[in-house]
User: What shape does this take?
Amino acid sequence: MNNQINIVKSGNFLNNVRLELVRNKKPLILGVSSIWGLYIIAGIFMGYNHTGGGGKETFIFAFMAQLIAVVVASLAFTDMKRKEERIYSLMIPASVNAKFITRWIGAVPLLCALLVIGFYLGDFARISTFAISNARWEDFPEYMKVFNPWIVFAAKGDLNDGVLACCIAFGSYFFSQSIYFFGAILWPKLSFIKTLASLYVIQTVLGIFLMLVHRFGSFSWSFFDVRPLLWVMFAIMAVMTFVCYVLAYVRYSKSQVVYKLF
Assistant: This one.
């Protein structure tokens, strides 16, 4: 009996995935093409101007990835904007879990994989463009190598902790994305703008609070203190990321034909 129930649930999820792929075939193809196209264009620009190929390129591509991630996350529930689309979405014969997990997979792990591929496509475009546009490309063997972005794991410096640096980087990426993912179902219309405005207000209030704390208190941090503080920061981001996903699920599970904020 339990095996039959599991088969039904699995089939329900897979059928919903197929339906979403069929419904959004053109937008998905356009979206993937646009993401990879942006990385390739950036790589061509770098190769033509003999820039990139190191930390600067990683920073630019990482900034692009963060921006793309929050934009895509804010579009995760676009079919909940209008009443007609909400009715169609709610009437699809699939469980809330199947519908939500499908959206989450597309907006989070699948998008992350596409962005990683985009990084390498951009890097190959940089190398190819430089080789085509510069007859002396053989004189720059280091520039012609594919840059390894995962070198952050071997980061050196004051913190001397590549794992910590990587955790902070990925923690910030997924945390900010989860906020926009939650905002996408909290207010489907103009989700990106509303979430961005809300974050601006929250950051302003927190900034004022921290300035007051700094003004009336005395704190000093050494490099020995920073590392555990950063680990605490990463732990907070990980917990808050999970909380945002849970809140998004709860909000989605309570969705009705008539939109209600609360």
